[in-house]
Write a structure and sequence with these properties.
Elements (H helix, E strand, L loop, with lengths): L2 H6 L6 H6 L10 E5 L1 H12 L2 E3 L7 H12 L11 E3 L4 H13 L4 E5 L1 H16 L5 E6 L14 H4 L7 E4 L3 H18 L3 E6 L7 E6 L2 H8 L5 E3 L3 H7 L2 E3 L19 H14 L4 H16 L7 E3 L6 E5 L3 H16 L3 E5 L2 E3 L3 H8 L4 E6 L10 H18 L19 E6 L9 H11 L8 E4 L11 H13 L7 E2 L24 H17 L4 E2 L7
Parallel strand pairs: 2-3, 2-4, 4-5, 5-7, 6-7, 12-13, 12-15, 15-16, 16-17, 17-18
Antiparallel strand pairs: 1-8, 6-14, 8-19, 9-10, 11-13
Helix pairs in contact: 3-4, 3-8, 5-6, 8-12, 14-15
Length: 544
Amino acid sequence: MSKSILEKIGIPKNITETKSKKSSKYKYPGKPVAMDGNSAAIMCEQESTDAAGAYPITPSTQMGEYWADAAAKGHLNISDKPLIFIEPEGEHAAAAVTAGLSMTGLRASNFSSGQGIAYMHESLYAAVGKRLTYVLNIGARAMTKSTLNVHAGHDDYHAIDDTGFFQMFAKNAQHVADLNIISHRIAELALTPGIIAQDGFLTTHLIESFLLPERELIKEYLGRPDDIIKTPTPAQRIIYGETRRRIPELWDVDNPVMAGIVQNQDSYMQSVAAQRPFFFDHIKELTDQAYEEYYQLTGRRYERVMTYRADDADYLILGQGSLVPSAEVVVDYIRETRGIKVGVVDLVMFRPFPADMLGDILKGKKAVTILERLDQPLAVDSPITREVRSVLNKCIENGMNKNRTPYPELTTYSISDMPAVYSGSFGMGSRDLQPEGIIGAIENMLPDGKFKKKFYLSIDFIREIPHSPKQKAYQETIVESYPNVKELAIRGSENPNLMPKDAITVRLHSVGGWGAITTGKNMAMTLYELLGYNIKANPKYGSE
């Protein structure tokens, strides 16, 4: 299309360049781009990070590939150093390599998913104990609990809950990029490694438009690994003095530090217990500091818990990841069509668990439904639900004690402040989540709802209309033996089309080839780059 034709229909020659020139009161407002979540992570990592150890595993493979490509092309990071990429034989080795890179004082990263997280699990404990500062980017993927599935699930993310890594989860590509940078900042202040996760395929491979952090922002916000900084905490000052290297060099022949030593009965417990007051208890404060510093530079504010229309809400949907934007749209619809006050709670940070914020947010609500993209077998509740119940119980304990407050960091509840808690599993293995499912979760909480405490969204244990007489007979035997199995599922009363006004939807199908996926991506990018559309292009990969 020629320039003259573009001008005739009122389209700038370079729409993204025009958008980037919009005035902003913030120093680094971001550059308009369109790309998938994997690319968003790497576009930040290749600027900030010195080295990566990674082994390919779906759906995080692209992160390692993009990094390796940037390293091969001689890309220089903000320290003007060429990138180092090491691909060892297996995920466990990749984690060990990343730890080694971090111990030498380099800013290091790793990328993994699913079974890869399980293979490296042992090394993660050691990384925390050595007070390393690397960041693990996860494309969250279902584990092989019944059959192999390479799509979205939070099994791998929650497999790390007990290691001591701090954990955050991004709801879209914008959050992937920003939280990746913030994660490095927190890790280097707290001397504790961190995780930033995104939903496999649903975010890692979803192309969408967002504001990419500038190289100059990353340089100012993160700085160089060898910068000398003011030591952030009293415990660190005992070790390092008033100043320290931003990323300490543990492997330094001039100033050696013992790491990975053997401790027997009298010493091991002492060192493990000491980590909580001297290191872990500082992470919350350092996280809030990192968020505020990022906001001052970019205007994009993050918190350990973020909410949407929750202040006046009677009912809340709480979750992580790509569920959150969908829930926000459903909430708008329910408020507009039914007048029911519903809000959304985005649990940005899972470790350390933001008990102080959640106690305030949930106080006095009628009910909260916690939706989680996994099902933990044999557990009394799924992981987020367990944590939320613990917070609520502590708030009640505060109210029961007349002479003292057992948990001064938490708010105080009376019994009437306690919301009803419901727990739902959804979207395992990237099973589609339609508005209907979220509406069903909301309807379950309402006065005329079914009040199911534990349920699965949008699946059928028993089909209302069997496909055949043989299936009908089979289902009758199931119901006879398990009469309540049907009640484990929830479906909503409607499935509205909640696409934005004037939105255009295009769906391409292909059998046995990659042509449709590439065509869809190219079509979306053309609409973005030429016409300035806000886009979401989601390739629905299968295992076929």
